[in-house]
Amino acid sequence: FELYCLPNFEGVKEFFLAAGMKMVGEYILDLYNGWKVLVAAAVFGFVFSLFYMIFLKCCARVLIWVTVLAAIVLLAVLGFLFFWNYRNEADEDFKLLYKVLAIVFWSLSGIVALVLLCLYGDIQMSLSVVESAASFMFTNCGVIFIPIVINILTACFVLYWIAALVYFLSTGEISQWGSTPFATVSFTDALFRNSFIYQLFALFWVWAFFIGLNQFVLSATVIQWYFTANSDTKGNISIAKSFCWALFYHIGSLAFGSIFLAIIMFIRFVFEYMRRKVMKAERHNALMRCLLSCFSCCLKCIGECILFLTKNAYVQVAIRSTCFCCAAKEAFRLIIRNATRFALVNAFSGVFVFFGKCAVGAGTAFFCWMLLNSWSEVRDNVYAPSVMTIVCFAIGYLVAVLLLTVYDIASNTILQCFFDRCGNVGTWREE
After folding, report:
1. 326-340: pLDDT as tens digits
2. pTM of the entire predicted model
């Protein structure tokens, strides 16, 4: 550290004070003084996530059926109420309105009931997949360390990339950014600009590779559990074996699959940069702003489709040990043939993941708020407890994201394992 000066937290506070952002410095100092509460928030988030897994394992099926039946009854009741108003209304215009609304709500209730009857078997199978994923998570808590380790590796690479970027930017012309203490850099040589584009694409590619590595290792671990678990044993998993499969046998497939995601990420980044420039210049051109927003939405949809397809392709790579292209073809064929089941599993797991993240974050924030108000050692040194509570919510939310992302991948992998075992036909068996 002979070349760099690393400020302490008081120095950071003074820096933001000099920049006219006193409150930011106070908030950062609060994070330093309340670090024990932040650690407690991570613990609370992990514990609440485990309890949520137990809840899904025991109550997911009942919760879904109660919700669906309640929706049917609610629609029918609303139709009856509008029909009652139709019978007792004297104004002809309102009578017609109430009659139409009653017919609409009764029709919706009947449609939902018919769909429920037609998809009863698929719904039952999808709920079994969701419960099995929760059972896998609860009996194999060690899988939570897979995304943690991979995210740490990703963070290390990003830090290395930022350090390399700092060295790269030091070759440009540095000037002050307005009246702030920050700087801006400009380049006159096209070689340096092209080098930055190459470095930026490399960041997206490696980032996408780590995303694929996380999905593949989790899927491989779930596959080991699925094909060894039965009513007598809880299933055997080896996280080390999953990493070996990824790094020694399928690293080429991961790299090849991740480049597609990297390309769309790079295109979106460049487009968003240009879009902001154009929208700032064409502030009063509503048509241009609308077209740019629509195109941005289309790029986002394409990115989500590529992410979804690559995620399923990695599962097929782990199951069949094939190349990425063959796995992507098989995954696409499997999704098309079983679109309803995939849609139901993704819908149920998506709903449970969303509510789980919100519930765990809210529970963590509540307990940390109580801790901030009752723990005198922290309370007396914290400037803004409300900001600390928001940070605790974010920590609990991120912990839930880590755990429930594993749950989402486990649901999708178990469904594909079921199709692989049954040859795309058959019904779910509790094993």
Report:
1. 998 988 888 888 888
2. 0.78
